[in-house]
Every structure is written in structure tokens, then in C-alpha cells.
Amino acid sequence: MGSALSLSKKILESIGGRITLFQATLPNIGPSKSGSVLKNREDVNNRTVSSNNTQVLTPLLNPVTDFYKNLGLECSETQIGVDIFILSSSFADIASISPISKITGGSIFYYGNNGYNIQCSPGRVLARFESDFEYYLSRSIGFEAVLRIRKTKGFGIQSFFGNFFVRSVDLLALPNCNPDSGYAVQLSIDEELKDFSHVCFQAAVLYTSTDGERRIKVHTVSFPVVSTIHEVINNADQEAVVGLVLIKFFKQDNKID
Question: Any idea what DSSP says for residue 187?
């Protein structure tokens, strides 16, 4: 699989585009020293005991190789996005493979059948894959995109969440983007806002359409400055808050309790 991805990158690097990868087994062909070949690391004895005396497979949350991360960086530089469809009921080592998709603004679709959930029965999985792939081929896509975040003076950017490559403090590189992609930014209040009645935030996306047109989309929002935390809680977007909490949770390495 590593060799196929490297070759696909070489073919597209002069024009950019998208690579769609289907994974059914662990990559087992290629130069062993390159790091592209992966082995089954799923060992019931290789567990970490958490503070509440439960066992979790935390070692599997970390990649075993940087091959796919480094290849993802090369793809990002040449404006190539990588989407992955994982069609495997066994260990797929998503932690090692997923960086190539994350860095390039791609998506990961998982269709594992664990045998314990009726929702994961082979028939249901196949139907979901067919529906998802049909939509995947027909949905809108933007190429060679960048996302810039602007905010009122007094705020700082702490971190970004999503699939992208951070090009500068407030600029994200997105070789591919689509209507289903979601991004979050965590801000910090660096100065007092007592002189402001409202604060503004803006997200601007510059991208190339499938027709080759260079376009820009700008989203601007304004929020009132309040004095109590209750006013913030009562007007918060609950879905966005829960989504951000989950993303931050899964981003932590070796801290699952």
C-alpha cells in the first residue's frame, strides 16, 4: 500500500488532486526499512491499567511508523488529499495510517464488522458502504484550499482541531475540502474586553472549484460581551461544544481513563 500511495503521489504531484484508498488488510508488501509495512500489534496482554483499574489498549492509539505521516506532508505540499475507506473486520492500525489523511484534509470511512453489533452485520455494512461511496463520488469538493481565521483584538489562537496542515499561526492548508468537513479553533482571551460591547470572528476559505475557478467564502459572526458565565452557557451551541470536547478527548495520547 505504501508503494501504491507513493506512486500515486508522483503521478499527481504536478497538478494536485485526490487519492482514494481502499484498505482491506494491513499493508504487508514493500521495503521493510521504509516503515510502510505494518504488522498486527493487537495483543490482549499489551494493555495499560488505568487509575480505575480497567485495562485499555493505549499503545494502539499511537502510530508505530512515521512513513504515512511523512508521505502526508509531501502530499500536502503538492496539494494532494487522501481519503481512506477501511473495509476490514480485523486490526487495521488506523493510528499509523490515518496521519496521511489528517494532514491532507482527507476523510476516513470505517466499515469494520466486529460481530457483536447487529448494525455491523455484513449486509448492513455493505449497504452503508454503497450509500456512502455513491455520495462520496457526487459531493462537492474544493482543491488547493486555505482557511484563515481572523478575530477581534485581544484574542489569541491556542489550537486547531480537524484534518489539515497548519501553515502559520492563523492559516490552515487544505489540499481538499468538502461540505462534510468540520474544523474547530480554541481561543484564549489575552486582554480585557471591558471596552467592547461585541467581538467578531471570521473564517475565510480560498479554494479552487471542480470547474477550475478560484473562489473565496467568508463567514463572519458577532457575539455580545457578557459579564457572567451563565449567559455564555445559556447561549452556547451545545452540539459544537460536545463535538469539540470529543475531538479534544480523542486527540490525547495515552491519557484515556
Answer: E
Query: Grid coordinates in use for 52?
Result: 480505575
Residue found by looking up cell 482491506 in the block: 24
Residue that the C-alpha cell 485581544 belongs to: 154
The distance from CA 195 to its chain's CA centroid, rounded to whole angstroms, is 37
Average pLDDT score over residue span 99-118: 81
The answer to whether the beta carbons of residues 83 and 18 sit under 8 Å apart is yes
Global confidence as pTM: 0.85
Asked if 200 and 222 touch (Cβ cutoff 8 Å), the reply is: yes
Closest by Cα among 34, 59, 156, 167 to 103: 167
Residue with cell 469538493: 141
Cβ atoms of 105 and 174 within 8 Å: the answer is: yes
Distance, CA of 18 to CA of 9 (rounded, Å) = 9
How buried is 255 (Cβ within 10 angstroms: 0-12 exposed, 13-18 middle, 19+ buried)?
Answer: exposed
**Residue 254 pLDDT greater than 50, yes or no:** no
Residue labelled with grid coordinates 458502504? 129
113, 55, 60, 109: CA torsion to nearest 10: 30
Residues 147/164, Cβ–Cβ less than 8 Å: yes
pLDDT tens-place string over residues 203-251:
999 999 999 999 999 999 999 999 888 988 888 888 888 988 888 887 7
How far is the first Cα of the chain from the last one, in angstroms, to the nearest whole number? 34
- Identity of the amino acid at 62: N
Output 243-250 pairs: Cβ under 8 A, ≥24 positions apart: 243/182, 243/184, 244/161, 244/184, 244/186, 247/161, 247/162, 247/184, 248/161
